């Protein structure tokens, strides 16, 4: 049996194959993912946004970075160098001779396969005269020719060649290892062991340990675990958190502590500049001794956030630190909202657990808007527009125009708007109009139902209610005519009441909400009639049964109804009364027409009628089943699809980073100041988005007034509030003696049940005969 032999690559040929493959596996994918598609792509994108976002801080920083950045050049240089190495190695490999070739004596003799013996001998004589060593030929070539001649003419050699691929018989199988021989040389053993030990016992554990240590310090949203615990502590401690307290908790995050985050910096000049800014800001609770609010990093971050909201001018060092703090705030506020939702769910599941109030969670959302726009809470949302200053607001809030919100400004006539903004030049006015037209206008369509239930429109106590909200996003410029029409019915008090969380939800209703309410009413009306039709069909089906009801069974049913075992809603009671009326009329008509039609004919007609009714009911069930399947498939597709979170860039004059336009959608009880459904962070609303909000219906029957609220995380004054009326009915009681649940447990019980059924049938036959 042939043995095996392992040998290292003394010539280095095999190692070149390995190195070429390794470099190719790195260079080819890296080129696809890292090569800049277009060197001017970012500048072209910024150029398209210049007309609207040209004055934004993030735009100017991004434009400067794109012009000064050398990262694309370095990427190209690195990739080109990698390709040069790959091409060199490939060229090197192409020039290497193949060390192993399948032995073919016909190729050695330059003959075609299957040549005759005479042709082989003739060719051997010719080549022998040419390569014989005695005549100055190549000895190695002559040996190959002799071996090939022997393989084709000698019977044993030919058999070995056909069986083992070699005229000499089986040979030792050799395996080449793609490592140079000097690596396993005894002289270099200590050096190789040192390199292996350093790589696998020092570098690899350090890299894995560092990654693991960093990963356990952060949550899924890249927020420090310590910060999340801090937010949970203070939100539990202070359920009702005003804006001043919220800013203190936000700026106490460990992301701003240099001991927890290396990006945070404490400068020597902070001892001079920070106290000066504190004197300019006024009362910011500097003397508060509660940790961590009294720590230097927290105090500095609080000052930086407040100066940003006040739009104060600061020095270059402070401005750099301010940008770092402000960029972190939206993600931290989102984490704070998540913590508030978790505490609310814990309070719902556990009795006596204290949950944060709705005002605390909504203040987090408002603070996010304030940070992105660089505005204080009491400031007018018109200051989000360019070229608007405090002294210009007096032209807007005058008795003639009464413009206090973005919607009011859009709804003005062009002539009135230009006259009101006469303090702006033509270029500035055109810029303001371009920015105003790019602001979002969201419409909400709500649909209330109970999924996976027979009657999806009947909300019973304790059922899971699903509110499907369809959000449609358009620009203000596209719906300007809409605002002109709604100007007369949307008074100024709407803005003030939307800002007041205590205001009733019905008073914030606009023409659009009223129209949606009317549509919902008509839909309810139609659904009621649809349910009534189905109930009537089921009643007719009951009336056409051939088997009469026995007196004992009727007495038992009456007794059960009297004891209250069978419970139903008002619709069931009305249906029963109608059924009794129909049965009385049916009996009278049968007595009057008994002489006309025979019983057999009446039975045939009733059978046909029942068959058609069953077909109709089956058709309705098929339609409902198809609709349910489509909704399930739509939800599955939504789960499988990964939508981009790049929606629309936010217009923000003072935010240092490009911010995408996101929203919060939730249902709240304004009267009790509680959350009904958890806030859903809508991050993919580019044109249209459908969101399902689920919550359990109240345990008590009655009418409830909720509000579907849509809040922006970037814009002030563009929030939407839509009333949601919930009518909760009593839940249907389960039938204890339903025949499909009467399953005998043993064979004896089954036999007893069969005997009792037989006795009942015989009694019914006797009654029929009587």
From TrEMBL:
One of its GO terms (cellular component) is Sec62/Sec63 complex. It comes from the Eukaryota. One of its GO terms (molecular function) is RNA binding. The chain crosses the membrane at residues 15-35, 70-91, 190-213. The keyword Cytoplasm does not apply. It is found in: Endoplasmic reticulum membrane. It is a multi-pass membrane protein. Mediates cotranslational and post-translational transport of certain precursor polypeptides across endoplasmic reticulum (ER). Proposed to play an auxiliary role in recognition of precursors with short and apolar signal peptides. May cooperate with SEC62 and HSPA5/BiP to facilitate targeting of small presecretory proteins into the SEC61 channel-forming translocon complex, triggering channel opening for polypeptide translocation to the ER lumen. Required for efficient PKD1/Polycystin-1 biogenesis and trafficking to the plasma membrane of the primary cilia. This is Translocation protein SEC63 homolog. The gene is SEC63.
